[in-house]
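Hi F.,

I've been meaning to write this up properly since the lab meeting, where we talked about keeping a consistent format for the predictions we share between groups. The idea is simple: the sequence comes first, exactly as it goes in, then the structure tokens exactly as they come out, then a line or two of notes. No screenshots and no reformatting. I'm using this chain as the first example so we have something concrete to point to.
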Amino acid sequence: MSLCSPIRRKTSRGQARPWLLAACLAAAPLTPAPAQQTPQPAPHVLLDRVVAVVNNQAILSSDLDDEIRLSVLDPGRGGRTALMPGRALEQLIGRALIQQQIRQEDEQAAEPTQAEVDARLAELRKELPACIRENCASDAGWKTFLAAHGLTPQRVESYLRYRIEILRFIEQRFRQGIRISPEEVAAYYRDILLPQYAPGETIPALDKVAPRIEEVLLQQQVNVLFDDWLQNLRKQGEVEVLDPALETPETPDGARSGKEGRQ
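Output, unedited:
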């Protein structure tokens, strides 16, 4: 027999929305229980929970776990330690706000093609330092890498589609007047990218990774403009963090800009 508890939601403005997705699962006995035996309550199994709400869009605990796993694909992290849950939530909040705005402005213009996603995936498998160590350029190495980090090809593709979409949106909205010089690209390659490779590892040539480096530098250049815009979105909308342990003290309401979420 299976019992399921309903989803509960409070929608009044300014109140936390303690949503909870839960299922009560009980296995049926193989033989009838004696008449005098007291029935035992079915065990409650927590499947997921809402940790934040962004303009009525729920962010689940499973989304948080997913974001932490996906951080291994972020070249901007440079091999740093695992993403912390509070920081992961900041990125998810920022992502939700950005995607909502994109959908309001021009959904079709921002949608990347499958060819763009495939090209970015091929680039990632060949050039990401973590991928090079696992030989992700080969199908067997890529499969091993995904399994080791709890990822699937479909989830990685979705992640890359989002990255392309956000970069395009940033370029269209914030790039006016910003130029990245060849000297800046070379300095990033020398000082930031090369130290990520261990001795003996194959290092990609500068001309091969220059477009990606330019993207990273572009993101750094537009941080101020982007952060101001995102903070305005927060003020105009409703962002609620339902788990106090995930709130960050830097800004009110546990909200921060989530810069890594747009790289």
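Notes:
The chain is about 50% helix and 10% strand.
The radius of gyration is 22 Å.

If this format works for you, I'll send the rest the same way.

G.
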